[in-house]
Amino acid sequence: MSDRAAERMTIEEFLSWQTDQVDRFEFVNGQPVAMAGAKLRHDRVTGNALSEIQRQLRASGNPCDAFTANIGILTPPGHLRRPEVSVLCPPFDEEAMTSDSPRLVVEVLSESIAWIDRLVKLDEYKAMDTMEYIVFADPTRVEVGFWSRDAERAWRSETFWDPEAVVSIPGLGLTLSLASLCERVPLPARPRPRWCE
To answer: Where are the strands (E) in the chain, listed by range?
Structure first.
């Protein structure tokens, strides 16, 4: 990393610096943070989520669209995160590299930094006024964590382990089956813990 990257930056400086980098970075506490490398199974789940969400949005005529981690999400602490998939709604600025108004994000967990997703990024996403749905998919097993706002805009959460389960995202007219997320991903089924029976 260059000396410039070791200095504290503004978000504008970071975005300008990022355009000259080969790798992608998040922006945390004024510093660039390199993205973790992805394994093949991680990339399959990411591609499955993106294509399924795009397909459903376009088939229904929904003007919202799904974007990749190339579009940074500006979270309230002044950080820039790069979820694998984000759903943004009009109006769109086609020149924008970031958004502070996603309705949905999908994070595909990386083994080495899953704790950051679960303990840090989740709280950042939940603090965003426009955010309605958060999906965390574990690419190493059949497990999806799902957070959604209720009618009073309080967050509620569910965890899905059944490969036949379907996550309902009514505000965007979407459904995500675990089978579609795990398509072509060789994953062992995870038995439901006894305390959930």
So the answer is: 25-28, 31-34, 65-67, 72-75, 79-81, 85-88, 98-99, 104-108, 133-138, 143-149, 155-160, 166-169, 174-177
pLDDT > 90 fraction of the chain, expressed in percent and rounded: 79
Strand partners, 104: 87, 133
Query: 99 forms bridges with which residues in the sheet?
Result: 73
Strand partners, 185: none
pTM of the model: 0.90
Question: How distant, in Å, are the alpha carbons of 32, 66, 139 from that of 38?
Answer: 18, 20, 10
Distance CA 78, CA 76 (A): 5
The answer to whether residues 53 and 87 touch, using CB atoms and an 8 Å cutoff, is yes
Average pLDDT over residues 140-158: 95
Distances (CA, A) of 37 to 18, 69, 112, 185: 17, 13, 10, 18
Evaluate whether 165 touches 177 at the Cβ level (below 8 Å): yes
Handedness of CA 45, 43, 87, 91 (dihedral sign): negative
Assign 95 a pLDDT band (cuts: 50, 70, 90): very high
Q: What six digits make up the tokens of 172?
A: 């965007």
What does the pLDDT read at residue 37?
Answer: 78
Upstream peptide bond of 91 is cis (omega within 30 degrees of 0): yes
Q: What is the pLDDT of residues 161-187, one digit of tens each?
A: 999 999 999 999 999 999 999 999 986
